[in-house]
């Protein structure tokens, strides 16, 4: 249903995402993991046609046969919020503070041709579907009257309003506390028609997704069913991610990395696994960071 083939993203002459290919079938939930700066968000934003100015995508991506890359903005506007939609990390910036919740959920439907009255009624229905209490009452509230978790549910209701074929979530629960996070993740797993779920948290991806793609330095370096990737990681970077995460796959020992590299959260400060390049990010050549000598920072940006 979603097919991405040879996706590349660049800013000027700098390649930020390279040769990314994957597919998501109907009903499938796929995680996209990788450290900060590995290209997860740019991959998602390319599919949504929402790349920042000066950043361009190449390659091919289709959703149910419809092209997503290199198509005019007018066409993308029709697809966005209808065929595919996205939930971002910070709902407060996405919601209009001056508009009632119900009206904001209804708006995405009227923009795509639904009658105003019908859209209002369905907005209340959707607020109930994302398990918000007293949806009729809540529809009349403003964003600041809701908790962070409630606002994120509103964003999910907006994303689902036109029954999209694919939902993309970019760190949707990072700002929420743990119990709220868990309920939100369960809800996303339940209601998503098909899902691309971006996170740096391996435990979250294991809870929500069936398959995972691991990004490193702008490329997908590994992919497969969660159980397989998390219990038998093939790429050293995935091993590093697992070792540094709070996730210990059931039935396995915490992976250790060969070559004298510290395991299980012992990466020193400045490690490429934890931090972005301290120099200009975009020029950092993030080659595999583990060497025979152990841990190494892979930034090849000239010192100073
Ligand atoms: N507008 C831009 N111009 C130039 N470089 C950019 C731009 N936006 C992002 N980048 C760079 O592209 C790389 C990938 O960024 P991206 O936001 O996709 O990473 P990410 O994996 O989503 O990270 P995070 O988990 O921190 O959101 C980073 O090195 C980032 O600095």
UniProtKB/TrEMBL annotation:
<dbReference type="InterPro" id="IPR027417">
    <property type="entry name" value="P-loop_NTPase"/>
</dbReference>
<dbReference type="Pfam" id="PF08352">
    <property type="entry name" value="oligo_HPY"/>
</dbReference>
<feature type="domain" description="ABC transporter">
    <location>
        <begin position="2"/>
        <end position="242"/>
    </location>
</feature>
<dbReference type="InterPro" id="IPR017871">
    <property type="entry name" value="ABC_transporter-like_CS"/>
</dbReference>
<comment type="similarity">
    <text>Belongs to the ABC transporter superfamily.</text>
</comment>
<keyword id="KW-1003">Cell membrane</keyword>
<keyword id="KW-0067">ATP-binding</keyword>
<keyword id="KW-0813">Transport</keyword>
<keyword id="KW-0472">Membrane</keyword>
<dbReference type="InterPro" id="IPR003593">
    <property type="entry name" value="AAA+_ATPase"/>
</dbReference>
<dbReference type="InterPro" id="IPR050388">
    <property type="entry name" value="ABC_Ni/Peptide_Import"/>
</dbReference>
<dbReference type="GO" id="GO:0005524">
    <property type="term" value="F:ATP binding"/>
</dbReference>
<dbReference type="InterPro" id="IPR003439">
    <property type="entry name" value="ABC_transporter-like_ATP-bd"/>
</dbReference>
<keyword id="KW-0547">Nucleotide-binding</keyword>
<dbReference type="Pfam" id="PF00005">
    <property type="entry name" value="ABC_tran"/>
</dbReference>
<protein>
    <submittedName>
        <fullName>D,D-dipeptide transport ATP-binding protein DdpD</fullName>
    </submittedName>
</protein>
<dbReference type="InterPro" id="IPR013563">
    <property type="entry name" value="Oligopep_ABC_C"/>
</dbReference>
């Amino acid at each position: 249903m979603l097919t991405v083939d040879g996706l590349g993203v660049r800013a000027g002459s700098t390649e930020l995402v390279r040769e990314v290919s994957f597919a998501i079938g109907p009903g499938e939930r796929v995680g996209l993991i990788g450290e900060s700066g590995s290209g997860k968000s740019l991959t998602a934003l390319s599919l949504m046609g929402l790349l920042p100015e000066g950043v361009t995508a190449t390659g091919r991506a289709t959703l149910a046969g419809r092209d997503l890359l290199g198509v005019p903005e007018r066409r993308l506007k029709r697809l966005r919020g209808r065929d595919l939609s996205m939930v971002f990390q910070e709902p407060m910036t996405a919601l209009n503070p001056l508009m009632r919740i119900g009206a904001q959920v209804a708006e995405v439907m009227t923009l795509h041709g639904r009658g105003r009255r019908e859209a209002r009624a369905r907005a209340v229905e959707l607020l109930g579907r994302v398990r918000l209490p007293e949806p009729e009452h809540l529809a009349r509230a403003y964003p600041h009257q809701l908790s962070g978790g409630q606002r994120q549910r509103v964003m999910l209701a907006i994303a689902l309003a036109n029954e999209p074929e694919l939902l993309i979530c970019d760190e949707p629960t990072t700002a929420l506390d743990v119990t709220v996070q868990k309920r939100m993740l369960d809800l996303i797993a339940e209601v998503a028609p098909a899902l691309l779920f971006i996170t740096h948290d391996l435990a979250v991806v294991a809870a929500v997704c069936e398959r995972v793609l691991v990004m490193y330095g702008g490329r997908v370096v590994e992919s497969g069913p969660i159980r397989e990737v998390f219990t038998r990681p093939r790429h050293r970077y995935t091993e590093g991610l697992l070792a540094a995460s709070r996730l210990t796959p059931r039935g396995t020992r915490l992976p250790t990395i060969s070559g004298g590299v510290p395991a299980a959260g012992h990466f020193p400060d400045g490690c490429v696994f934890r931090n972005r390049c301290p120099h200009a990010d975009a020029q950092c050549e993030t080659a595999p960071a583990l060497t025979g000598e152990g841990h190494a920072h892979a930034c090849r940006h000239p010192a100073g």
